[in-house]
Structures are given as C-alpha cells and as structure tokens.
Amino acid sequence: MPSPLRTALAAVVLAAGAYVGSKPIGPAPALGPFLEPARGVWALGRTSSLPDHSSAHIPGLSAETKVEYDDRAVPHIFAPTTGDAYRALGYVVARDRLFQMYLQTMAASGRLTEVAGAAALPLDREMRRLGLPRTAERKLEALKGTPTMTSIEQYSQGVNAYIDGMAREDMPLEFRLIRKKPERWTPINAMHLLNRMGWTLSYIIPEEKRAAAATRVGNAAAASIFPDVSPIVEPIQPNGQKAPREDMIAFVAPGAPETNNATLASLLRGLMPARERALELQELDASSARGFASNNWAVSPSRSADHHALLAGDPHLDLTLPSIWYEAHMVVPNALDVYGVTIPGSNEIVIGFNRDIAWTFTNSETDVIDFWREKVDDDAMPAKYQVDGAWRPLERRIEQYRGRFGEVIATDTLLFTHRGPMRREHGEWISMRWTVNEVSDELAAFQGISTAKNVDEFQAAMGAHYMAPAQNMLVADRGGHISIRSTGRFPIRAGDGSGNVLRDGTSSANEWKGYVPLEQMPQAKDPAQGYVASANQQPVDVKATGGYWGGLFFAWRALRINRLLRADSSVTVDAMRRFQTDPGSERAERFAPLLVRVGMASNDERSRQSAMLLGEWNREYTRDNTRAVLFEAVMRELRDRAWDELAVDPHGSLRRRVATPDEEVLWTLTKDSSNTWWDDRRTAQRVERRDDIIDAALAAGLDSVRHQYGEPGDGWRWEKIQTLSVKHLLPIKAFASAPVSLQGGPSTLNPSGGRSGIGSSWRMVVDLGPELKAWGTYPGGQSGNVASDRYHDRIDGWSRGELLPLFAPKTAAEAATKHRSTLTLTGGN
Amino acid sequence: MRARPLLFVLPVIAFALTTWLFGWWTVPLVAAQAAWPAGARWKASTLAWCAMGAWVLLLLWDAAGGRLGAVSQMVGGAIQVPGPVLMVVSVLFAGLLAWSAAAFVEGVTRRVTADPSLRSG
Question: Considering only residues 744 to 783 of chain A, which have any Cβ-Cβ distance to chain B shorter than 8 Å?
C-alpha cells in the first residue's frame, strides 16, 4: 500500500503543478497553456510556415478571392472588387503581423500601460498630451460616409475575420508572453497609426535648440548658429546652379544668457519626444539623435542608360522587427493593380508602383508646429482663454490610463484651445498647433495614387488630399516624366512668417493665416538637369524664393546624391542600387582635408600622427576601412571644443550641451579661423583660434580611439564599430537581429546604424520602361512570427545593399508560377 | 499482463488526444481516472511515462513543421532558459502532473478500500 507520505507528496506536487499550470507567476505566463504541445508555444513550430494551401472565410466578401504568396512570401491578392481586396489585405496582414498591429496601436493611442503597466505612463502621456487620440476621433468622425471610411471598414472586416478564426495554436508568441489577447480591430486604429507616423516624422521643434542655446549665449548668437536657412544650399527644387552653394553666416559672438527664454526652452524640451531626450542624454548630438536620413531620386530618360525614367526610394525610419513595412500586391481586374509596402493596420499601399507610375517619399523636415502664450481666466483651474478681448471656453478632456488588469493607474485633465492642446510650463499656459492634429484624409490620397496613370495624376491626387506629415513626394511614369513636390500643410504665419517665436495667443492677428498653396510648394517636373533628388535638405533656395520653412534640414546627403547623379549621364538600375549604399561622404570630403592640413603643421606629435592617419583615408565609410573611426572621434572632439559655450555645465564635460548646431554650420565657421566662437572659454589667459581647436581635437580624437580600440589596425575596422541592432518591438534580445554590420556612416547616403536605431526601411528601384520592373528589400521579413523562416530573412541581403526583383504578376495563374502558398478566401455571412 | 504494449499505448493515446483536444489540464484528470479504482492496472510511474510519451509525440508533430528548433531558441531566449531545457521541462511537467494525480488517487483509494470504517462512511 502506498505510504501516507507518498500520497501527501503527490498531493503537494499535484497542487503545485495545477497552480503553476494555471496561474501566471510574476512576469512568467501560466505554464500549462504556455508549454503544452499542440496548442502552446511549441505549436508555433508547426504553424509558423505558410501551408501549401489554406482557406478562410471573411464575412462580407462578395466572391472568392485568391491570395498567392510568392517565393519571397509576398501576398498577391486577386480580388473581384476593390472592397474585397481591402478585406483580403486586412486578413493577410493580420495573419503575418497581428502582434505588431496590436502593440503599435496601443502605443499610438496612448494605451501602452495596459500592456506594460505604469512604466509606460510617460510614453502614453506624451501621446495623449499632444492630443493625438483626440485627433484620431475627430478625423474618424469627419470620414463618416466617405469612400475612405468604407475602405477602412472593409480592411477591418478582414483583420477581424482572421482574429475570429484564429486557432489557439496560431496565437503569436508575444501575446503569450505578455499574457494578452488581440483586441477586435476598429477603424479608429488606422487613424491612430497614421497619427503615429505623423508624430514620428513631423514632430520637429527647431525652436527648442535655438531657445536652449539662447539661455547660454543670448538670442542673437543663438539665432546665428541655429539659422532658419541652411548655409549649404542644393535644394530639392532645383535653383539652376550646377554646384552646391555655400553661404557665409554672420556669426554673432556669444553674449549674455537670455533668461527670458528659459520658459520656452523648458517647455519645448518637455515637448521633445521622450526618445530624443533619452538619446541626447547619451551624449548624442541632436542630428544623430533624430537620425532620419531618407533619400530619393529619379532620372529622366535622357540620363538613363536604357532611356527609361528610373526612380529610387529609400525612406529611413525606426528599424524594428517586425519591420515597419509589409509588402503586398493587390489586383482587381480593370480597377486596381498596385504593389508596394503598407503600414500594418492601414489599408493602402504607401510607397510602391502600379503598371504606369512609381513613387516614394522622403520627409520634408519642415517646421509645422507653433506655440502661443495664452491668457486664461484662472491660472490654477482655467475654464476659459482670451482671444481679442473675448473669453472662449476651453475644451476639457479627461484621460484615464489603465494598467494591465484594467485598473485606473492615472488620470489627466487635458485642456484644448481652438489651436490645440494647452499645457502649463513655468507658470505660463502655452497652446500648440500642429498640422498632424488637423482633420485630414491622407488615405484618400493613397487611394487616388494607386490608380494614377502619370505624374500629373499622382501629384493631383496627393495635392487634393494629403496634409501631414509633409513629404517630398517623388514620382516617375512610363511616359518618361519625373516629378517631385514637397506636399502637405505648410502654415502661413503672421508677421515675418517665422515659426521660431512664441506668439501672443490673445490676438487673432497671430493665428496661422492659412496654408501655402499647392503651386507655391517646393516642386519640379522634368527639370533641365535631367534628375530630381531629395535627402531631407532645405526644399528651396530661400535666397531666391524667400519664405520660412524652418525645420531640421540636412545638406550632406543631398550634396552627395547630386554629385553622383551629375557625374553619371547614363545611369543604370544597378548604379541606382549602388548609390543607395554609397560610402562616400561630402562632410568628410570637406572636413578631412582641413583637419589633415592643420594637423600636419602642428607642433604636437599626437596631432601630426592623427593627421597623418587621416591623410591615408579615402574618405569612404566602407566596412573594411580603418580610418573613419578616427575621423568621427576627431569630429566629436571638434564639436565639443567649438561649441563649449553651449555646455550644460561650463565646468564639466563639454560633450553634454544644451543644443548642438548642425555640422553645416560648423563647416561654415571653419572659414573664419579667428571667429570668437573658436575661443576656449576655459582658458582665460589665451584666445584660441580655429587651428588651435582643430589641433587639440586631432590629438584628443586619436587618444580616444587608441583608448577604445587600441593601436591602428584591425580593431579600427568600420564594420566592428558601426553596427546595427534591429530590435524587436518588445525589448527581448533573443528576438533581435544583431549585430548587423553595414557600409556607410554619418552623413553618407546610408547612415544606418549606431545607437539611433534608425535606418533604411524600404529600398526600392524602379525602371519605368514599356514593362515596369522593380527591385526592393527591407530589413526584416514578411512574418511577425519570431520562429518563422520569414521573420528576418531579408536582413543579410539588405545589409549588403542587395535588392531583390519584385514579382508583380498580372493574374493568379502567373502568380502561381512562383507559388509558395495559396490562400483561398470565401465570403457570405 | 502489465508488460503488454497495449497497456502503454492506451494511456499514451488518451493523454495525447485529450491534450490535443482540450489542453494540458486533462493530463492529471486522465491519470486520476486511470489510477481509479484501487488495484487499477496502471501504476503512477507508468502513467507518468505515458504522459511524457504522449507529449513527446505531440512535440514531434509540432516538429514536423521544421521550425521547432527556432521556436525553442526564441522562447528560451525570451525567458532566458536554454530552449532544449525548456522542452525537457515541458515533458517533465506532463510527467509530474500525471504521476502526482495518479499517486494521489492511488493513495486515497487504497486507504479507503483498506479501512472498513472509511468505507462505511
């Protein structure tokens, strides 16, 4: 007979097993459903591959719809109606990216606390205080009864059909780990996701840097080192010049700190995206912290080898796994045939091509946010604000933040003026107006361009509907035309038109006066130079056109691509591909010779050695080069020393600054070797000049590289230094792809890598010949299933700069020739 | 009689089938049922082996998709336990559940049948 002890032990083990099997302990999920084979995590081993054939039911689908996945796992949707194509798209995207759709919607709607608890509260507050969830509601309300609304609902039906029919074993691993279930998909999610993209791309506050600098050196000096207009000019809208123009800046010597600017500086700093603040704390300068570096260009038939128009696109965004993009192709006979990438959760192809045109975007980086100082009736609990002597009621909105189990963990009362959200800073009430918070219908624009036949139809559709975030929209057609336009809402401001001031909210005279009309937006069609290009540079030559565009512009990459295109009058598809990862740097081409020249004349042995080593560099950021690391270290030291007046702590580290001027400004400063800005404030007895500072930077840069990487040699190889980690949306190391080594560096056309986590998100080259041909790739894979062989299968090729041919079959039968999997969707109720 | 393969095959099928149909919680139920009443043909240890065998079979089925190694690596990485260890833990979990349920039922029922006072209530 079994002993009582054995029975008792069995009871304890059974109780413990039942407990850990059914109850989550700490962050660990309940082990029973998690570990069981057949339905638990192990089942993902069976379900992570696409089956040869499968079928599903989507309520509302009008007739059978075929989806053929090709050998790159791209779904080609062949639907009888456009509505069915949207339903099918919703289904296939959810099938591959359900967790991403869920998490990104939670982030965009300020609900991350429901996933991550109170730790995510600052991120959620950021979204809600900017008014983004409110904007999503207002946008959706305005869409009622429109074709856009219909298409969003159709897409949602597809997503929900997948969620409803999803077997337990198909539940993505991430949901199991965080112990959540997917929510039903609702149309407002599309609005949230588009808002999120608007926040990512157009939440740019140039006032912040200038105001912060003014607290150290005064307004006039700050304005001179943070100019509205880039000193190096090669704009998107060609200005007729055959080379970039370098304008001199009238540098104003550092003056007394402007204490009145503290409020604005502090407010704007508080408004900066949390991530950028975090990156700046890691001592990254502002331009690296932002790090977006999109490029696009197109060449006319007259400059292409095969006499077709060619187009290249390369938007740089957060690199994550799963990728921000999902590749898809939709075909509806006689109605739609569009291929490209879509944002999971949004129902349109954002960047891609149809049979006649191809298009791509870069971010305009313009200033589309302004601030007003408001007068309120009660400083502590305002209910009204004043405009032109009359009191207007404030809109009050209660925002509740919930924890993982639905409990309320925080509540905010948000206030809105007619301009937008209002918040208190240093005892003042400041409201904000931002184009992303205005009601708009971008999806109608994407719907329009998907069937456009030529560049004019494309620009007309975009011009009619697209508002924010403003983009440099590049398009080419099979007729050989190329066109670019910075499209979106650009506010017309009162007074001198500057967006760099805090305005008085009590006067309606300070309101935005409207938006820049379409014909005045930066643009070009078939210019005489035979190509158009954009790389987040200043869109127009302001000296010639006037106007304020503000923003955060980058010149070096634009200079590079223009140089490459000017030098090649017979561009091939392969050259377009090579340009995308070109290792050359216009920044290095300018700074390196100066550094070498100054260093070689130095009395300091270390400076001379540093200069000698830099002199051996071909100024290219190839993987195997061993000098780029030294150049970057010297540049870091040079920035520290040149902008010592902006240090957070004048007696501490020079690397932490309240703001860092762009290197285009630094380059301009080098042309004035005795400018006061070169003086090192720490040496009261001596006045330093440019060459003294460069001399010191060369020596310190060499010391720092030696200290970190040893003596010159293999340890200095760029591929060992500039690596990238493509992280999963959840901070789980095992799901990341790292380290990925790359060709390219700061200010090259491929500046991916480093700590910013930003890089080339969708490279595409299109040859618009009689039969359109396209190539592309992105760093990730089609599947969001971490165990799938399609999870990050494209990263290796992407890191080598390879593009894959994009297969765009016209019929399901043609698609079947590259068959990997077939999904048959049926409808009915 | 206990050596007959059928005695192993039947519980293995029962464990596998009920796990597949209803979930992990059926393992102790099936084990308890098999150990009931006293004098049943299956010992607790036998049932533990059978439950583990059933889950191994189901894992092999999962492995047919060819990606079980990747799943194991990812899941293990996520919870910072080597993937193969986690797989062994899964199988042991089934074994422990089966053994403990069967041993508990075995102990209780034998006490009841052996003690006339307990039988009469």
Answer: none
pLDDT tens by residue, B8-44: 899 999 999 999 999 999 999 999 999 887 566 789 9
Percent of chain A with pLDDT over 90: 82
What distance in Å separates the CA atoms of residue A28 and residue A44, rounded to the nearest whole number?
18
Mutual orientation of helices B83-114 and B44-63 as an angle, nearest 10°? 150
Tokens 């062949």 belong to which residue? A78
Mean pLDDT by 10 residues, chain A (829 residues): 84 95 87 93 90 95 96 97 98 98 97 95 94 97 96 98 94 93 96 94 83 90 93 94 94 88 67 57 46 89 97 94 97 97 96 98 94 95 97 98 96 97 90 95 96 98 96 97 97 91 94 96 96 96 90 92 96 97 96 98 96 97 96 96 92 88 96 96 91 97 97 95 90 90 91 77 97 96 94 95 96 90 89
Rounded to whole angstroms, how far apart are CA atoms A471 and A489? Answer: 10
CB contact B115 to A (< 8 Å)? no
Q: Give the residue on A whose Cα is nearest the Cα of B32.
A: A14
* CB within 8 Å: A36 and B96: no
Strand, coil or helix: what is A422?
strand
Which structural domain range is residue A23 located in? 17-47
A291, part of any domain: no
Residue B52 pLDDT exceeds 90: yes
Parallel, antiparallel or unpaired: strands A336-342 and A326-332: antiparallel
Whether chain A has a CB inside 8 Å of the CB on B101: the answer is yes
User: Within a domain: residue A644?
Assistant: yes
For residue A602, give the DSSP letter.
-
- pLDDT for residue A286: 43
End of a domain among A652, A687, A716?
A716
Rounded CA-CA distance B9/B14 in Å is: 9
Domain presence at residue A670: yes
Task: Classify burial at B29, counting beta carbons within 10 Å of its beta carbon; exposed 0-12, middle 13-18, buried 19 or more.
Answer: middle
Q: Which of A628, A648, A611, A624 is nearest to A746 (CA)?
A: A628
Q: Position A768: which residue type?
A: L
At a CB cut-off of 8 Å and minimum separation 6, what does A376 contact? Answer: A382, A384, A385, A386, A394, A429
> Over A430-463, what HEC string results?
EEEEEHHHCCCCHHHHHHHHHCCCCHHHHHHHHH
Contact B99 A22 (CB under 8 A): no
Is residue A322 a part of any domain in this protein? no
- pLDDT for A621 equals 96
Which residue in chain A has the smallest CA separation from B85? A35
Task: Please tell me the total count of domains within chain A.
Answer: 2
